[in-house]
Amino acid sequence: MNIYMQTLKRDLRIAIRNPSSVLNPLLFFVISVSLFPLAISPEASTLMQIAAGIIWVTSMLSVLLSLNALFHYDYENGVLEQMVISHHSLPLLILSKTTAHWILTGIPIILLSPLLGVLLFLEGDSIKVLMFTLLLATPSLSLIGTIGASLIVGVKNSGMLLSLLILPLYIPILIFASSAVSQAQFDLEISSQLYFLSTILIVSLMGSPFVSALALKISLE
Q: According to the 3-state scheme, what is the secondary structure of the chain?
C-alpha cells in the first residue's frame, strides 16, 4: 500500500507540472459536446434524444486521447524499465498509475457532465443516471485502456493503433451506459444495465493490472 500511494502521488505531481496532458482531453470533451447543437439541431427534443450517446462517445474519445500519456513520461526517462525489474508488484504499480489516470480524467468528466447534460436539455433524473453510469464505467475505461497503452509502449505515432486496439472493447460499455440514460428518460427500469456496468468494472479491476503487467514486460523486451 505504501508503494501504491507513493506512485499515485508521483503521477499526480507529474500531471500538475504538465497540465496540458490533462487539460487537452477535457477541453476536447467540452468543445466536442458543445458543437453538437450547432451541427445537428438546437431543438430541445432532438438533443434530448441523443444526449446520452453524445456525452458517452465524447467521454470515451477523451479517455482514449489521454491514454497516450499514461506511460510516455516514464518510458522516456527509463523509469518504466526500473518498475518492471523492481521487487515491487508490477500489477500494483500499474493499478496505481491507472488510478491516477482516472482521478485526472474520469473525475473531471463526471463533474462536467451535469453542465453538459443541461446544455443538451437532459432532465434532473436523467443527469443523475448519467453521472452514476460515468462513475461506474469511467474506471473501466481507464483499466481497459491501460492494457492497450501497455501494448504500444515505445511505438511512435501510436494513436491510431491504440484506437484500433481499445475502441472495440469500449463498445459494450457505450451500449449499456447510453441505454441506461435513454431508458431513464422514459422512467423505464435500468437495473440490468447497471448490473452489466458493475460486472465489467469488477472484471476489469481484477484482470486489467495483471494483463497490463504481462503486456508491458513483452513490450519492453
A: CHHHHHHHHHHHHHHHHCCHHHHHHHHHHHHHHHHHHHHCCCCHHHHHHHHHHHHHHHHHHHHHHHHHHCCHHHHHCCHHHHHHHCCCCHHHHHHHHHHHHHHHHHHHHHHHHHHHHHHCCCCHHHHHHHHHHHHHHHHHHHHHHHHHHHHCCCCCCCHHHHHHHHHHHHHHHHHHHHHHHHHHHCCCCCHHHHHHHHHHHHHHHHHHHHHHHHHHHHHHC
Cα distances (angstroms) measured from residue 174 to each of 83, 165, 196, 210: 33, 16, 11, 24
Give me 43's grid cell. Answer: 431543438
Of the two residues 219 and 145, the one the predictor is more confident about is 145
Domain of residue 116 covers: 2-220
Has this prediction a pTM greater than 0.85?
yes
Domain count, the chain: 1
Residue 21 above 80 pLDDT? Answer: no
Q: What is the pLDDT of residue 124?
A: 81
pLDDT in tens, 127-142: 999 999 999 999 999 9
Check pLDDT > 80 for residue 9: yes
